[in-house]
Amino acid sequence: MISGKTIFAHKKLLSTYSEYFSHYFGFESDTDCQNELIPICDFSYETYRNYIHFIYTGELFDSNDGRPLMKRLIELIDLSLTYDEMDLYERCTNEIDKLLIPSIVTDLYDQAYRYQLKSIMEQCSRFIITNWTKMLEQINFEQWLSCHEHIRPSIGNLKPK
Q1: Which Pfam families match (predicted)?
Q2: 133 SS3 class
């Protein structure tokens, strides 16, 4: 149960495909308890629904919940790292690679910094240095860069692929 909303799922399936749930349920997963509610406090309903959807289908999102795609990806990455779900993490970072463009990379970097997602911060830094000329053409990029002194060492250490 998340924020008063319920997501229905099969305990056995969750235990089979998720190490987190396998540990959570332990050996109980052999007995099917249909009324067991698991309170979830760490993530939003939408993020958790997408996580369960991924377990069931292998797809990242079951619908567009109105939030920006990058925000949804960052939240799923945060969840994947919390629950050690590396398949989900890999899918999200691959999706980010496909979607990175100069106009959104700074916002994505800021979100990754907020969650301390170092690999995404590095991904953004690598994109910035690889696309340096295009980045300089972006409105407010130099101002953004001056407010983010912590990124300068990352950019200085990266070389384009």
Answers
A1: BTB
A2: helix
Query: How buried is 102 (Cβ within 10 angstroms: 0-12 exposed, 13-18 middle, 19+ buried)?
Result: middle
Q: By the 8 A CB rule, do 6 and 48 touch?
A: no
**pLDDT digits 0-9 by tens, 86-112:** 999 999 999 998 989 998 898 888 888
pLDDT digits 0-9 by tens, 39-64:
777 888 899 899 999 999 999 987 77
Query: Domain map of the chain by residue range?
Result: 43-157
How many other C-beta atoms are found inside a 10 Å radius of the C-beta of residue 80?
A: 21
CA 64, 94, 123, 161: dihedral to nearest 10 degrees?
Answer: -140
Measured N-to-C along each axis, helices 69-82 and 102-115 cross at an angle, to the nearest 10 degrees, of 30
Which amino acid, one-letter code, is at 36?
E
DSSP string, 99-126: H--HHHHHHHHHHHHHHT-HHHHHHHHH
Task: Report which residue type is found at 92.
Answer: C
For residue 56 the two structure tokens come to 């069931």
